[in-house]
Amino acid sequence: MTNYTYFSIRLLIMGWLFMASPELIAQATQVSPYVEKEYSKPPKAEIDFKLHQSEVLLNNSPQNSRKIALEALYLASQTKHKRREARAHELIGQAYMAQAVHEQSLEHFLKGLDILQRIEAWERVAHIFNHIAVLYRRQRRYDETINYANQALRLAKKFDYHSEIALAHINLGGAYYFKKNYQKSIEYIQSSIDIREQFDEKTGLINSYNNMGLVMRKLQKYPEALKWYSMSLEVNSGTNRVKHMKSATLDNIGDVMADQEKYKEAHEYYNEALKIAQESGVSLRMMEAHQSLYELTTKEQNFKAALYHYRQYVLLKDSFMNTSMGVKMNNLQQKRRIEVAKKEKELLEKDIKLKRATIYRQKILTASATLGLILVLIMAFGIYRSRRFLQAQKVEIDRQNQALLFTQEEILSQQEVITESNEQLTLQNTKIMSSIRYAQTIQEAILPFYSRLKKVLGEYFVLYKPKDVVSGDFYWLSKLDRYKFIAVVDCTGHGVPGAFMSLIGFSLLNEIVNEKCNVDPSVILRQLHEGIFFALKQEQSTNRDGMDLCLCRIEEQKEDNLTVVFAGAKRPLYYISNNQLHTLKGDRMSVGGKQIKASKSFTNHTISMKKGDLLYLTTDGYVDTPNPQRQSFKQHRLLQVLDTCKHIPIHQQKRVFENTLSNYQLDAEQRDDITIVGVKL
Fold first, then answer.
1. What CA–CA distance (Å, rounded) separates 181 from 117?
2. pLDDT for 244 beyond 90
3. Most CB atoms within 10 A, among 103, 180, 416, 546?
4. Would you give the distance in Å from CA 227 to the centre of its chain?
């Protein structure tokens, strides 16, 4: 039996076993020591065999895939098989990417890219550009994702690589999805589906169908989303099975169930997704499943389970979205640019040697000039001028070479400084973010729990979106005798300064109402102003911090009648009674803040309402939210949303507020903390 025949039979056996069961791959790839000794394979065949093993194991066992690809890389580098060496780098990069080790993944992709560009293997160059686009999308750097995907697309179209065209389209569709340009996202994803269906690319269709389902779910087209997810699961079976993508699809179906408040079905899909993700060992999928289960158990008020899934999610997220990851990836790009500069220096040195050889040949010609005196003089004059020109060129080349060496040393020095600075900044950022996350936990603990809100208010919703991790907005609830109190407060600033103010305001409200038993809203606001005035020493200092708020006292009367007493500091109250929308303006002054007086008087507004009427308490963050043209949402649009919501059940109104704001804001940055509390009396 020849070496080639042995290798062919081994590949056939492994392929048959893989079709029967992927779990038999490991057995198929093991060869007895006797056979290895008797039939040693040629170097190319051995490398190809290991590359094939690595590719087969990639989707379901990335760690084993990387190990085998490293063996292939060693053999290829020893035998100088450049194309195979580049393929090994690419497979190692894919395996690292599956395990979310992004900086090492990028390093191997760049090494493979250098080799492929030198040997002009443009299809593989396009493929690696697509991989790098995925890396940057995972780092949420969508502009760089679009840049690399477009580079892949240009190459793929030039040489008609249909698989790479489809992959570039799916990368562009994903980037525009996260940039909230859903129309563009649908166009690119549909284009990838058309190409992959035409050429029957089963594995690619798993991803394309799944991504189309994501966009449909975002647009709340739930039957359409489920249709695409079902098509993805149908393709993702048998020999085409990709375990971690099945986990992703099941997790996405769970999201659709949760959106429709089908929590039992959502639990089943999320748990199955987590089980498959753990079997495949892909940390990205495990992170997504724990995040989904955390959000679902929080909605169900199962806080013990929510805490477990949140901890697992944070552990995985910290490894996946490491704060130093972007720095390391940038350093790899900088390292590659330095290597390119070194190669340019080598080419320049070769050019200098070539010019020196030219000078040497010119000297030989000068020495051999034996023609007549006139010819010798003419040739001598020409040679003289030529030597002067070449000497000037040599001097200029030497100068440029010295400048290049100096520039290279300066770049290396700057890189060391940048690396050290980045490490210090990363450490400081980690400490700051840990403190802020702890502050977030404290702030969330003081807010009323959902169970207490439901017990006191009955039917309600809360839209609470901090601009940063912690918020300068807060909402407050109390029940004293026959009175119920609800307030929404907007403190000066946002982030950490605003959060400190919110703790002061929350503490003072509890003291004024729950301890001192004050039930008059205007008196509560006056005493709150006095408390802030003296707590911040505003009479002696330049401190001008304060807060705007909307405060309501609700008292049930006979039959279905209620009395609501409202007092506001620069915040209105919106309410719907007899199917009509009304607005009550608060006083035109804040609590604390610029009006430096030890005492202020606020006004009570009394409203007679009936059960079923609606109250809305807000901060100004919603109406101040900008669109990409930096135009604020404004109050007239908020009034339109409120008028629309009067026919919608209260528990569904939060989604209307969220979707309306998201469609207006698109990819514009949130300007302030946002809080809206809606109550059905």
1. 33
2. no
3. 546
4. 26
